[in-house]
Amino acid sequence: MRQLNAVLWDVDGTLAETERDGHRVAFNLAFEALGLPWRWDVARYGELLTVTGGRERLQHDMASRTDAPVTARERLMLAEELHRLKNHHYAERVRSGAVVLRPGVVELMGQCAERGVRMALATTTSRMNVEALLRVHLGSRWASWFEVIVCGEDVRHKKPDPEVYHQVLAGLKLRPLQALAIEDSPMGAAAARAAELPVVVTRSAYFEQAIFDGATAIGPGLHQRRGWRPALSMDQQGADDALVGLDDLIDWHAQMDSVSQFS
Ligand code: XBP
Ligand code: MG
Predict the structure, then answer these.
(1) Pocket of ligand 1 (CB under 6 A)
(2) What distance in angstroms lies between residue 6's CA and the mean position of ligand 1's atoms?
(3) Which of 108, 112, 119 is nearest to 245 (CA)?
(4) pLDDT at 241 (0 to 100)
(5) 158-188, pLDDT tens digit by residue?
(6) Which listed ligand is nearest to 201 at the C-alpha?
(7) Sign of torsion over alpha carbons 195, 46, 54, 11
(8) CA distance 69 to 252
(9) Which long-range contacts (CB under 8 A, 24 or more apart) does 243-247 make?
(10) Residue 23 and residue 12 in one domain
């Protein structure tokens, strides 16, 4: 049987609903701090999520605004300043408790640690945002949970490019089929698939209806066993509250060739 050696975690949307209540609100506070009239509502931010990376997202949005600086260089400088401010507000929001880990995440991490399944973070978010989130929720030794951590500043090309996953696999010295990625967005899942990794999709708020290509399994989150494809066993007592756990991941991973890929 194929062995699952490592679980590779995405951060935003997968570990926590960081985007709608964290980054988006923090971007708006940054606009306000610089006296800009720009605001990203929930729907507009959803459109902008197709552009990964905070600075890249800001520049993309400015390109379509008549009240943004004219030259690309000025826009880049403004994006950098806004991004710095945004990250500061994001960290404050996280510390104030506005962003919590999704249910089932810590439990699955604990099972991996206990049973010797290695873990890594594969994110195109800035390292300081990862640190802000995980220091609050996993404690000061948060980084020791992960053998390899690859963040936005470590790659030349952000997701959906597979570079972040190539770096993680190289760091772990594993082949793609020895690991499993957990993602919440089509761009993240595409990055994993482009690195030939099997991917489990835990849909986040912004991607409840999104179409995913070639997921090994796809469902509403680790907090519930209902609504997954392939379907999960529901025969345990209290199945309504039961989480998706490491045994489920191991089963999906082992059956990968026999079950069709879900989209
Ligand atoms: C999520 C992203 C990031 C965050 C903001 O990446 O697209 O851009 O929205 O992060 P992932 P920064 O799901 O791979 O973690 O502002 O730090 O770029
Ligand atoms: Mg994500």
Answers:
(1) 10-13, 19, 23, 52-54, 83, 123-126, 129, 152, 159, 185, 188
(2) 22
(3) 108
(4) 73
(5) 999 999 999 999 999 999 999 999 999 999 9
(6) 2
(7) negative
(8) 50
(9) 243/103, 243/104, 243/107, 243/108, 244/104, 244/108, 244/219, 245/107, 245/108, 245/111, 246/108, 246/111, 246/112, 246/115, 246/117
(10) no
Residue 10 is a catalytic residue? yes
For the chain, what's the residue count? 263
Give the rounded percent of residues in the chain with a pLDDT score beyond 70: 95
Structure tokens at 257: 């060739």
Q: What is the pLDDT of residue 237?
A: 58
Residues 68 and 126 placed together within one structural domain of the fold: no
For 238, the domain range is 6-16+100-258
Using the atom order of ligand 1, give the atom closest to the CA of residue 164.
Answer: 14
- If 0-12 CB within 10 Å is exposed, 13-18 middle and 19+ buried, where does residue 236 land? exposed
Task: Show the DSSP H helices in 182-237 as ranges.
Answer: 186-194
pLDDT digits over 93-145, tens only? Answer: 999 999 999 999 999 999 999 999 999 999 999 999 999 999 999 999 999 99
Amino acid at 258: S
What is the Cβ-side half-sphere exposure of residue 61, based on CA atoms within 13 angstroms?
24
CATH number assigned to the domain comprising residue 44: 1.10.150.240
CATH of the domain at 202: 3.40.50.1000
Residue 48: which of 36, 65, 29, 61 has the closest Cα? Answer: 61
